[in-house]
Amino acid sequence: MVIQMTENIKVCVFIRAYNSEKFIEHAINSVFRQNFNGDIFLKILYDEGSTDNSYNKILSIIEKIKRKGFNVEIIRHPHTTPFRALINYGLKNSIELCDYFAILDYDNFWDESYLAEAVKTIRNMDFLYSNPIVINESNEKIGFLVRKHLLLN
Fold first, then answer.
1. What CA–CA distance (Å, rounded) separates 153 from 136?
2. From CA 92, how far away is CA 86, in angstroms rounded?
3. For the whole model, what pTM was predicted?
4. How do the pLDDT tens digits run along the chain, 153 residues long?
5. Which residues share a beta bridge with 149?
6. What angle is formed at CA 15 by the lines to CA 68 and CA 32, rounded to 5 degrees?
């Protein structure tokens, strides 16, 4: 079910990628499986200090996604850059592009209705926080992250 919006809403999604090779594909795919009837701009914030094959994995995923017409950008940054500063950089360079911003960690994913429900909900407030789904290395849901405490199923 696609939730209809009266205007074309644009959402920028930021995913931090650091030693994320095992999880990043599931997180990225969950962004583009949304039943959201607006535009999604994905910005992957890649930490150059990663010691696994994250970067090559991300490039492979992006190549497939761009062929489908989705908007994806990878922003590389040195390991010494604090994540907060990187998000600020992303926001400053996307503020005119998007109506809303969302952050998804590389080891979490969204249900298909997440963005549509989030946009519908946030229209009446300034800030929205939700509890992400946490997955294991086999991409199986193992619980929800609530205020930095993991609730297992």
1. 12
2. 10
3. 0.79
4. 444 444 689 999 999 888 999 999 999 999 999 999 999 999 988 888 889 999 999 999 999 998 888 899 888 887 776 767 777 777 777 888 888 888 888 888 888 998 998 888 887 776 666 666 677 778 777 776 655 443 444
5. 146
6. 30
